[in-house]
Amino acid sequence: MARESSRRQGGVPLPRRKRWNYPRKGKNWFMRWVPSWRIVLGTFLFFPFFGAGAFFAAWTTIHVPADLDNIENQVTTIYFSDGVTVIGTLQEERRILVTLDELPAFVPGAVVSSEDASFWTNPGVDFRGLARALVNNLRGNPTQGGSTITMQYIERTKTDQNSGMMDKAREAIMALQVTRTTPKEQILESYLNTIYWGRGNFGIEAAAQSYFGKSAADLTPSEAALLAGILPSPNNWDPDVHLAQAERRWIRSINRMLTYGYITQEERDAAAFPDFLPRPERTNTLGGQAGYLVRLVEEELRQTETFADNPGRIRTHGLRIVTTIDADLQDLAVEIGHSPFQDEEDPADPGLSVGIVAMDPHTGAVRAIYGGFDYLSRPFNFASQGAVQGGSTFKPFTLIAALEQGHTLDEVWNGDSGIEIPGWDSTSNLRNFGNQSFGQIDLVRAMEQSVNTVYGALNIEIGPEHTAEVAHRLGVPESVDIAPFASNVLGTAALSPLDLATAYATMANGGIRVTPHIVSTVHGLDGTLLYEAPPVGERVFEEEVILANNHALQAVVRNGTGRTAMELTGPGGQQRPAAGKTGTSQNNTSTWFAGFVPQLVTVVGLQQENDGAIERITPFGQWARRGQEIGSTTFPIRAWTDFMQGALEDEEVEQFPAWQAPEPIEVPDCWNSAGELIPCPAECLPELDCFYQPPASTAHIPFGLVGGQLEDVRLVLEALGFTVEVEEVAAPQPEAAPADSYQAAYPVNLHKTADNPARPGAAAGCLSPGFVEGVVKAAVQIVQLADPPYCPKIYQAQRFHQ
Predict the structure, then answer these.
(1) Is the Cα dihedral 787, 789, 790, 792 positive or negative?
(2) 201-206: long-range contacts (C-beta < 8 A, 24 or more apart)?
(3) 440-442 and 412-414 as β-strands: parallel, antiparallel, unpaired?
(4) How far is CA 24 from CA 27, 29, 33, 34, 36, in A?
């Protein structure tokens, strides 16, 4: 009851005692603020126990990395595709390993006495030194590390270490752990082989050779003292940089060697500041083309799953990297890429950039890549990093998009220059190169002659966003911004030669996209395969669509702006089929030829830039002497042809897969005998399965006669029922064309039957496009002689767009 009464008075609970009762009641003014003995004792016990607990937690959670001692890492070597010829090397540091037994005792002694005098007796950490460094740093004095040799060794061999306080604490715990399990001699040997000594050298052996031109085993006490003295700041205290400081450090080091018993008094008395070699001029093994290739290799491997998490392995693990680069093809690309600058009379402007990329379209392996004259003078790789307007090399992207939507190569469009095209994203009418008009032409000839008005109108009809989508699906990176405007068919977007080569490789590969790459295989020091090039790619287009596109691109070479590529021949002089597209941006600021044969795709691109501004390409070489602008039919196609001729010199001639024109398209339209469009009778609608068969007097005139020999064309026409009469006349010569590039012209008179009049046309020994147009129109007129009404099967050769 007494206990209960003490807790309550009148049934009301007493207030609880406060845990924090400062200032204390009942004490004088001073003692009211003095902690009680309980607080003092608790505090005294808490911090040691808390510190011990924290240390125990750190000790159990921090582990020495298994690969801590990485001094065995060697130089990574990069080879050409033959696996023998070296391109260059990658390395983090220059190091030559030695053992402690190979060195005189005073060499490691000089380092120990200068850097960590208690090394042989401390547990891996100098607590007094750490405390001294902590106080010094807290006072704002110059930073001191307080690190022992063991801690420095750990810092050197752990790549992600820095000098923060938490990192120092981790270093200290690791040093304690290492000292418990590793002999001091091993720690010191590893340290001597890993520490940086300036001049790009790591380790005592490399340093001895660099500073004194001798092995570390032959160093004198004075030389060892100099090396030990400059260790804290070797770049700044190099005797060839700061002689006075190097001498002061040498005196300190040689005296400490005596103090700690590593040399005798007689040796100290005889010691003098040693002679040393001058600091060598910086050299770089990445000069010329090697630097471009080595950097491409490193950048590519950094993006792979194998090396993304630890890219440092590329430089430090002695890898053997075999690339896809063919040494001979690379030399040829370099020779051609250099040539504009080596013309004695009219060299290229120094601001000109030349890019050449050759790729295996079936694998994506880059066989040669040229993007600059010399890596050391200009590390920027134009072939892989350039951003150049694509010009008319984008027209195949629009054609492929149109083919996917059901358009056909024989569609006829208005090819006149300056016509009004509804939907064109410009205030001025679109014009063709040289303001040339072509009249009504099909999509193949429009590609041959790179007719802007035809492909501009086609792009509007299919939707410019589809041109952009096709470009990306072909392999142009998504990072290349292709605006969904009608003008994107003219290559207003900027991309690199490597990007364009990737897109054209998909065409050459029949619609299967591959991943461009320069690395073939990577092996480790023990020969283990660590990485292999990506497998063959995926199909992204129907083969028939790509074959039709490639048919048009072959016509560019046979009859159009790419005729120079017709010079390409095989080992026996046999003509080698090729396909490609020229491209020149507005004002000749960039120009291209992108082309391929079945086994190799190559892109040549040019751009000129000075003081950060893209400018018109200054004529050079033979074209400057002729007064010609540098366009796609000058250096780009000349360089492409010369490169491909050399690259394929011993390769057999491969043919492109044959393209077959699709079956005629049924349309529910009817005409009367006057050629007027009339409503189609119900019995002829497609859903009623009504198929019109053209009357016997109708002949389907095939395309492909252009460029054929006259006798071959005669046989084709006679097989269609025409009587061919040939008369030789002189052929007009196009302006600026070589006089021997066209054969004599032959007008051809066509007679079908006694009921039908002759249908005149124009032909040549290598038939002109005008001949085909004439024959097609004649065929359409014959169709119109049949009795109306009917639903004709419209042959592709007879489809016209007004």
Answers:
(1) positive
(2) 201/94, 201/95, 202/93, 202/94, 202/95, 203/71, 203/95, 203/96, 203/97, 203/98, 204/98, 204/103, 204/107, 204/111, 205/95, 205/96, 205/97, 205/98, 206/94, 206/95, 206/96
(3) antiparallel
(4) 6, 9, 7, 9, 9
Those residues whose C-beta lies under 8 Å from the C-beta of residue 799, and which sit 6 or more positions away, are 408, 410, 411, 412, 665
Are the beta carbons of 667 and 519 closer than 8 angstroms? no
pLDDT in tens, 628-665: 999 999 999 999 999 999 999 989 999 999 888 776 54
Residue 161 has pLDDT above 60, yes or no: no
Three-state secondary-structure class, residue 572: coil
Among 62-66, 573-577, 590-594, which is the least confidently predicted range? Answer: 62-66
In this prediction, residues 520-541 reach a mean pLDDT of 90
Query: What secondary structure letter does DSSP report for 490?
Result: G
CA distance 443 to 549: 10
pLDDT score of 229 more than 90: yes
Give the closest residue to 587 by CA, choosing from 627, 545, 617: 617
Q: What is the mean pLDDT of residues 156-172?
A: 55
**673 against 530, higher pLDDT:** 530
Cβ-in-10-Å burial (0-12, 13-18, 19+) of 450 comes to: buried
pLDDT of 703 > 80? The answer is no
CB 290 within 8 A of CB 334: no
User: What predicted TM-score, i.e. pTM, was given to this entire model?
Assistant: 0.63
**CB proximity list for 680: less than 8 A, separation 6 or greater:** 668, 669, 670, 789, 791
* CA distance linking residue 459 with residue 107, whole number of Å: 77
Residue with tokens 């001094």: 71
Q: Which two tokens stand for residue 591?
A: 């120009």
Who contacts 696 (Cβ-Cβ below 8 Å, separation ≥6)? none
Query: Which two structure tokens, joined as six digits, stand for 745?
Result: 């012209």
Q: Are 254 and 268 a contacting pair, CB within 8 Å?
A: yes
**Whole-Å CA distances, 444 to 563, 576, 581:** 15, 20, 12
Query: How many of the other CB atoms lie within 10 Å of CB of 128?
Result: 11
Q: For residue 183, what are the β-bridge partners?
A: none
Distance (Å) of CA 304 to CA 314, 473, 517 = 11, 21, 11
Look at phi and psi of residue 683 and say left if phi exceeds 0, alpha if psi is from -120 to 50, else beta: alpha
- Picking from 140-154, 246-260, 545-559, which range would have the lowest pLDDT averaged per residue? 140-154
CA 231/CA 240 separation, integer angstroms: 15
Q: Cα separation of 275 and 271, whole Å? A: 12
Statement: residue 744 has pLDDT above 90: no
Amino acid at the residue 309: D
pLDDT digits (tens, 9 = 90+) for 467-484: 999 999 999 999 999 999
The set of residues, in sequence order, having a beta carbon less than 8 Å from that of 228 and lying 6+ positions away, is 110, 111, 113, 114, 115, 253
Close Cβ partners of 529 (under 8 Å, ≥ 6 residues apart): 521, 522, 523
Quick check: bond before 23 cis, omega within 30?
Answer: yes
* Structural contact between residues 340 and 630, judged by C-beta atoms closer than 8 angstroms: no
Q: Out of 178-187, 607-616, 735-744, pick the least confident.
A: 735-744
Are residues 242 and 127 in contact, defined by beta-carbon separation less than 8 angstroms?
A: no
Query: Which residues, including other chains, have CB under 8 Å from residue 443's CB and lie 6 or more apart?
Result: 399, 402, 407, 408, 409, 410, 411, 413, 454, 458, 552
Q: What is the mean pLDDT of residues 353-371?
A: 97
Among residues 334, 350, 321, 380, the alpha carbon closest in space to that of 524 is found at 321
Q: What is the pLDDT at residue 256?
A: 95
Residues 6+ apart with CB under 8 A from 660: none
